[in-house]
């Protein structure tokens, strides 16, 4: 494991992965087992529930933004955590 900090990259990140330890041998053979086929069981169809239509919702007036509520315990400072290496 190793890291290099290159300030010339700015906000970009470059990742290099080096894979090692692969043996050059033959791949192992897969053992396949036959799958037992069973006839599908028929279930009686359930009657569809009678759904009443949803009540219409009031749309905001043109030029008016809908009000959103936020929980009082939300702290904006904790919304984005800064990684240790950037502190």
Task: Characterize this entry briefly.
The protein has 87 residues and is mostly loops. The chain has no helices and no strands.
Percent strand equals under 5%
- What is the radius of gyration computed over CA atoms, rounded to a whole number of angstroms? 30 Å
Number of helices: 0
Shape: flat
What is the terminal-to-terminal distance? Answer: 21 Å
| Main β sheet profile | none
Low-confidence stretches: none
The helix-and-strand class reads little secondary structure
- Provide the residue-averaged pLDDT: 72
Helix fraction, binned, reads under 10%
Quick one: how many beta strands?
Answer: 0
Structure, described:
The protein has 87 residues and is low in regular secondary structure. It has no helices and no strands. The radius of gyration is 30 Å and the shape is flat.
Task: Describe the secondary-structure layout.
Blueprint: no helix or strand
What brief labels describe this structure?
87 residues, little secondary structure
């Amino acid at each position: 494991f190793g890291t290099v900090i290159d300030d010339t990259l700015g906000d970009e990140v470059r990742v290099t992965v080096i894979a090692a330890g692969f043996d050059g041998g033959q791949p192992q053979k897969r053992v396949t087992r036959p799958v037992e086929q069973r006839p599908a069981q028929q279930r009686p169809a359930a009657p569809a529930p009678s759904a009443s239509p949803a009540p219409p919702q009031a749309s905001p007036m043109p030029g008016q933004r809908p009000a959103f509520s936020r929980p009082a315990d939300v702290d904006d400072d904790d919304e984005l955590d800064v990684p240790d290496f950037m502190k």
